[in-house]
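Suppose you are handed a protein chain with no further information: no name, no annotation, nothing but its sequence. What can you learn? This example shows the usual starting point.
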Amino acid sequence: MKDQDLTNDADCIFCRRYRERNFLMENDFAFAVDDKYPVTPHHTLVLPRRHVADFFECSREEYSGMLDLVTSLKEELLMKDKSIDGFNIGINSGLSAGQTIFHLHIHLIPRRTGDMEHPAGGVRGVIPERMKY
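A reasonable first move is to predict its three-dimensional structure. Written in structure tokens, the prediction is:
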């Protein structure tokens, strides 16, 4: 995929970050950036290069490209920061799911033992009273 083939949205903050070449890693279909409002140290985002609003609009190649970067970033982060011993991986798809920027992005959130008193339930914490089961 060539840069001129990208269908970027001129007003999209993530498209702008891509055009600025401000990323940690990339492949033909996706790129990774630091989260500007990290939940934990080294919280990163993986995005398709093509501007698509959510997970269900991506091509198989884009899914694969994003997952390749998630895996590569995970390995890099584990080598860089020995305190990491887990990850949350998440996607907000739609306004009611908490999506605020409508360019698909996968959150890769490193976790560390003790960073939260009761982590059981993980991503179920998006609805706090349903986290524990």
